[in-house]
UniProtKB/TrEMBL annotation, chain A:
Keywords assigned: Lyase
InterPro entries: PMDh-S-like_dom (IPR002840)
Protein name: Phosphomevalonate dehydratase small subunit-like domain-containing protein
GO MF entry, a single one: lyase activity
Length: 140, 414
């Protein structure tokens, strides 16, 4: 049965893919190899996981603002995530995805889920996101 | 909640102020929503950290704005680039970074930015006034502008710094707002190591400690030496912003928003009190070195953030005499270089075996000729980043220790 959850659009677009649910926030700067889409932060529990083509689910962003460039560069190269679901607003992630959309037309929707839905979102093996300017939905 | 837009903001978005400004404003509105700002404010100046080549996207972004006819709306300074355009022969990196880096610097000039190429724009004629609303990037410049000058900026970075410059607007949140600038943590320096004659080492040690222990909370520091000068505060802020996310500190009796402890805390009570004694400061400084005394050196690197004219004035009496046994690099910027030239010091420094690096910095790009051994520095920031960035071992010490070690070719302490 499909469950449809209301969410907030940070960056518009739509995507459907399997998820990569991070147990801790990731800094893209120093944490993501834009050439491969691999997590390279030595201290991150999901080091070596690849986010390419998956929907990245993480509670919040972290780290240097240079993370925006790294995310945008990964999306340019096609190694970045298909979409991102956050629980806390994050400027670094938003700006990186916006720049890739504006410069390269590569949409990586970024949406904000609600606290009440977080258990369902993090438990899903795959998700689809439909993020319009006015509102977004997440389907599990 | 949507961001409130002024009529000028709407005119920017509509394209009336040009296609590049419209593009920049669209990004700024999304950014403002993401950080929870309620409105925008005018800014007097911007400082852009976009000249380091981080990949094709760095160049694509700026070239896009150039094609759209973009022009900055406020005086805008530039941070270091990947190459020294004054001494291009110093660059030892790949063709991609060399060419892309030089083009990136030039493209920013085409947008109307001033080619300062320095991490210390506060040492130039673009130094902001007390209370000025600005949008600055580069962590040490941000903390200096907020703390030492009392100007007001958040930690801007990638893309957004340039969007603020192209629109003359910044989201009104965080440290733009007076009440958010109050101190949260009281840092009491209780005693100083007797062997430290100058304030420099104390400031690096305190900066490192507040970076690690305060995160992004504003600290107010008491007990710094009375001789603490502007370059000491520069070093303190730079290492604090490297080891943590510090964007503003108050030094009671030294910085403009902290004439008293009460003023720094805006009448409120500290959330936490951190006490630092001489032994803590000695231990912090000791840990900045990754090699023991006596280790052979391949180079000495000074000037991170960029060496000021006052720092050169302190250095000049030390350089006469025996030449260094190893490479000595000093990072600085064009305005200081011009003054060194005028005073005849550029020639004296060269004769004394010093390589001046302009427009860039030895830890962010390939300039140093020999990275096979350890490098000594008097910069807490350089000591923090260089092992990861360029893979060298580091010895940290005072300026006088660095000069003596350059002559000895190994780490010595005076």
């Amino acid at each position: 049965m499909t469950v449809r959850l209301q969410a907030t659009t940070l960056v518009a677009g739509s995507a459907a893919a399997e998820t990569l649910v991070l147990s801790e926030p990731l800094s893209f700067w120093g944490g993501l190899d834009s050439a491969t889409g691999r997590i390279i932060d030595q201290w991150h529990p999901q080091k070596n996981e690849v986010m390419s083509g998956r929907i990245l689910v993480m509670r919040a962003g972290r780290g240097s603002s240079s993370g925006s460039s790294v995310l945008a560069e990964a999306l340019r190269r096609g190694t970045g995530p298909a979409g991102i679901v956050l629980l806390a607003r994050d400027a670094i992630v938003t700006v990186g995805a916006m720049v890739a959309a504006e410069l390269y037309g590569k949409a990586c929707p970024v949406v904000l889920a609600s606290e009440a839905d977080w258990t369902a979102v993090t438990g899903a093996a795959s998700l689809s996101i439909d993020a319009q300017d006015e509102a977004a939905t997440i389907e599990i | 909640m949507p961001v409130a837009l002024s009529s000028f903001d709407r005119s920017l978005l509509s394209g009336e102020q040009g296609a590049a400004a419209a593009f920049a404003m669209r990004l700024l509105v999304r950014f403002a929503e993401a950080v929870g700002a309620e409105r925008f404010t005018d800014i007097e100046a911007a400082h852009i950290d976009g000249c380091l080549y981080l990949g094709q996207v760095s160049l694509d972004f700026v070239e896009h704005l150039v094609r759209l006819g973009g022009r900055v709306r406020v005086p805008t300074t530039l941070n270091v680039g990947s190459v020294d355009l004054i001494h291009p022969e110093l660059f030892l990196g790949s063709d991609e970074v060399g060419r892309g880096g030089a083009r990136l610097m030039q493209a920013h000039e085409e947008l109307g930015c001033v080619p300062t190429f320095t991490c210390a724009p506060y040492q130039t004629i673009f130094r902001p006034c007390f209370g000025a609303q600005i949008a600055w990037a580069e962590s040490n410049a941000i903390v200096f502008a907020n703390s030492v000058l009392g100007a007001r900026t958040n930690r801007y970075g990638d893309f957004i710094d340039l969007c603020c410059a192209l629109t003359g607007r910044a989201p009104y949140y965080g440290l733009h707002i007076g009440e958010n600038r109050r101190a949260r943590v009281l840092v009491e320096v209780e005693s100083l190591p007797e062997e430290w004659a100058e304030a420099g080492l104390t400031c690096v040690a305190v900066g490192h400690a507040i970076g690690r222990r305060c995160g992004d909370r504003v600290p107010a520091i008491t007990g710094l030496p009375a001789s603490t000068n502007e370059d000491d505060l520069k070093a303190l802020g730079a290492v604090a912003a490297s080891a943590g996310a510090v964007a503003l500190f108050h030094a009671v009796g030294l910085t403009p928003e902290a004439p008293t402890i009460e003023a720094a805390f805006q009448g409120r009570v500290p959330e936490e009190v951190i006490r630092l004694a001489a032994a803590d400061l000695l231990e912090t400084v000791r840990k900045l070195s990754t090699v023991p005394d006596g280790t052979p050196l391949t180079a000495v690197s000074l000037g991170t953030p960029h060496f000021s004219l006052a720092e050169f004035e302190g250095l000049m009496p030390l350089i006469d005499g025996a030449r260094p046994a190893i490479d000595v690099y000093i990072n600085t910027h064009r305005a200081v270089l011009e003054e060194l030239h005028r005073r005849g010091w550029e020639e004296r420094l060269r004769e004394a075996g010093v390589t001046l690096v302009i427009d860039t910095c030895t830890y962010v790009t390939a300039v140093m000729r020999d990275l096979s051994g350890a490098v000594m520095t008097n910069s807490g920031k350089w000591a923090y980043y260089a092992p990861g960035n360029i893979g060298v071992d580091v010895a940290f010490g005072s300026l006088a220790d660095c000069v003596a070690s350059a002559r000895a070719g190994k780490v010595v302490r005076l």
